[in-house]
Amino acid sequence: MVLTGSRKARIHLILINLILSLVTGCVSPATPLPPPSALPPTPVKERSVSLVMGSWRTDDVEQMNRILAKFHESHSNITIQYDPTIATEYDAALLAQLEAGTGPDLFYLRSYAISRSLYDKGYLLPLDSVPGLKENFSIQMRAPWATDDGISYGMPYIATGHGIYYNQDLFNKLNIEVPGTWEDLMAAAEKIKAAGYIPFANATGDSWTMAELVFMNVAPNFIGGYDGRMAYLSGNRCFNDAHIVAAFQGVKDLSKYFPDNQAALKYGDSQQLFLQGKAAMWLSGSWDILFFESNKPAFAWNVFAPPPPKGQPPYFTFHLDAGMGVNASSQYKKEALEFMEWMTTQEFASLLGNEFPGFFPMHSQMPPLTNAHAQSFLALKEGRGTDVRFAWEKIRDGSPSAYDLIESASVDIANGIRTPQQAADALQAGLAKWFIPAQNCQTK
Q: What domains sit in the chain, N to C, each tagged with a CATH number?
């Protein structure tokens, strides 16, 4: 049969329809696409950043890296490089970096005047909005890194205690008890000297030690702690009154029992005299715990607080030593503030207190400490008033500073060049050149 053209066309159409019906019958209808609003959001990957932390603690690299590694565990997008500078060069180096716009993202802050000057110059980010700051640190702990109206520019970080290290074995051998009064301390020193030992390892070869390790270690017991210090800062006392003279007399009392060649001995030399068992006592701070533990002296040792004169209340220098600041010009302020928030936690407090025995967190809730010597140092606060180093607040801000005046006077007293009264008069005269309360003070 011959098909005509029209008939062929009809047959082709029928075949096409048949094929299409077979195909659509075997294939499931396509799943309709959801509207765009119903699609899950594409996850936004956090940027990975690397921050630099400046510090004056060159001995702490290993410990700080462990602490920073714990932060990284919970903040995987943030790494922090610990980059310390030698302590004696730190302040000048940091200021130069900040002025040049190359400063670290995070950096250690001295307490009071030095860090306040950095804030006033615009180099520090205010921290009042950081969660946990006000909840976990008292006003007193925040004060060294805050303006007069309470704006915080530094996170409270490290506190240190001052005290007297002593050779327990030697004390037991000489039947000496831990002194409870200044008079007892002098009697113990006399007994130690008579037995052929050096009572105190301290010396004047590094003059700063006479200010920080000696004068500011014992001064609170002679001036009346925090309240007494406030009386000088308010002008209710002059800086050459009987209390200051007594504090300088305390330096003279102690210096009689320093090593014979003390003028030539440096800080490290004094440490070695105590470490070797040649000196029975060493006025210093809790930061020396790690040094003595790592050198493993052949005797048992511990610490006690400088005792007050008989009949006077006891005080203990617990210095609010270091804060942490955020560079106001950092490219990574958000991440730096995340670290600041982590510093307020108990996790951080515990890491700090136990990685650095003798460097104490300032959190309102002190974490358990595992180091026995650190526990002993911290226990010295019990039953005693506490205060920061005498020269740190306000009277270190001008020239001549109280620190410089106290340092030079204490060295001179130990070397027989000035009397305690002359030292006190020089302190008053020097501060009266610029510190208004000293110009208008009410007592002498």
A: 49-160+319-386 (3.40.190.10), 161-317+389-439 (3.40.190.10)
